[in-house]
C-alpha cells in the first residue's frame, strides 16, 4: 500500500452529485467555499469551538473547518444553500427572519444548520435542549434569545407540516 | 490551512502497524481528527502521512460479554452518548460522553483518539477509571492489555508504542449495588475539573467506594488512599474527610495554574465536587444535573 496525496471523492452536495479529485489536506470548508463557491458556510475560529462553519454530513453536524473533505466520501452534505425548496425558505430561515434571530448574521448559517440537525434528531426540543445542542454555536452579538425562539417556532412549523 | 498530506487507509491492524513502523515519524494514526487536525493547523504537530484506522472493522465494535463492555477505539462520542447498551452498562460514562465539547466534536471525535491524545482537559478517561477499565493495544508484534491507569503516563503522553494502535477499551460493570456519577466544572466547552465517584452503601455507611479526578493536573487519577479512608463512614463524615484532604490531593493530583483557574481554586473545587459526587452517587435523587458552572 502506498500513501496517496489526493482522493477520488464522490459525494452529494445539497442533493447534487459531485465527483472529482481533491488533495487529502483539503477541509470540507475549503471544498465548499473555494471549489464550489458555496460561501454561505463561514470560516471563523478554525478550532471547532464557534460553530460558524457547521454543515451536516449524513444529517449530523460537523465543523467543516476541521473535517477533511475526503471524509464525506459517499455521504451526503447539506449546507445552508441547500435547505430552501426553490424559492420557499426553510421554516428555520423564516423563523430567524421573523424573530430577528441575528444581529451581524455571521454565525447564522451555522446556527441554522445546527438547529436543523437538532430538529431531525428531536422534533420537539425544549428551550433547555436547544441551549445544550447549540452550546457550541457562538453568537458574539448575543442574539441567543431570538435564536432559541426561532428554533422553537420552526419546530412547531415542522410538526404541522408532518401532520 | 494544513500542509500537504498523504493518506493511507489500512483495513487490518497488521497493515496499520506496519505502516506506522515503516513511516516512523512521518506517519501518524488518524481517527476522527477532532484534536489532531487542530494541532497540525496550529503547528504543534507535524505529519506527512495520515494512517486512517477507521477502515479497520474491529475498531467500530460495541459488545458486552461476561459483564464487560468492549468499545472499539473508533466509536464516536456521540454514539457512546446515545447507545442503549452503553447507557445501561455504564450510565455515568454515557453521561460524561454527552458532555464532551460540543455536538460537532462528539460526532467526529472517537474514544480511542481522545484517550491516546491524553489531553488533561478531557472527560471520558476520569469516569472510565472508576470502572477499572483496560485498553487493548495491537501491533504486528501482537496484542497486549493494559489497565487504563497505566496507559496514561503524563500530559499528552501514553504507554502507546510508536507501532501500536489502540483497538478497544474494556469497561467492566460496577459491582452490584454500586452507583456512580460524573460531575464536571466548566466555564466553556473544555472541563476545568472532572470528578467521578462510585459508592456502594450499606445501612447508611459507605461499604465500598471509587473516586477519580481529572483535568486539574497532568493526568486523571484514582484516589485509592481516600477511597480507603472513607470506607465504613457515613456520608456526612465522608464529605468532611474529603474536604480536609487538600494537602493529600495537592500531592497526588499536582494541580496547575492555567487560564481555567489557579491550582488553589481547582483544589478547593475538587473537595466540593468530590462531596457532591459522593452525595449524588449515594442518593441518585440528589439534584445536580451534570455539574456546576464556574
Structural description of this entry:
The complex is a heterodimer of chains A (163) and B (294). Helix content of chain A is 34%, strand content 17%. Chain A contains five helices and five strands; from the N terminus they run ββαβββαααα. In chain A, strands 2-1-5-3-4 form a five-stranded mixed sheet, with helices on one face. The model of chain B has no long low-confidence stretch (mean pLDDT 94). By secondary structure, chain B is of the alpha+beta class. Chain B is built from 13 helices and 15 strands. In chain B, the strands form four sheets. A five-stranded antiparallel sheet of chain B has the order 4-5-10-6-7. In chain B, strands 14-13-12-11-15 form a five-stranded mixed sheet, with helices on both faces.
Task: Spell out the blueprint of helices and strands.
The complex is a heterodimer of chains A (163) and B (294).
Chain A: E1 6-13, E2 16-23, H1 28-35, E3 54-57, E4 60-63, E5 76-78, H2 91-98, H3 108-121, H4 127-133, H5 144-162
Parallel strand pairs in A: 1-5
Antiparallel strand pairs in A: 1-2, 3-4, 3-5
Chain B: E1 6-8, H1 13-23, E2 27-30, H2 36-41, E3 49-52, E4 62-65, E5 68-72, H3 77-82, H4 84-89, H5 91-97, H6 103-108, H7 111-117, H8 124-129, E6 134-139, E7 142-147, H9 148-151, E8 152-154, E9 157-158, E10 165-172, E11 179-186, E12 191-202, E13 205-214, E14 221-222, H10 224-230, H11 235-243, H12 246-253, H13 263-282, E15 291-293
Parallel strand pairs in B: 1-3, 2-3, 11-15
Antiparallel strand pairs in B: 4-5, 5-10, 6-7, 6-10, 8-9, 11-12, 12-13, 13-14
Helix pairs in contact in B: 11-13
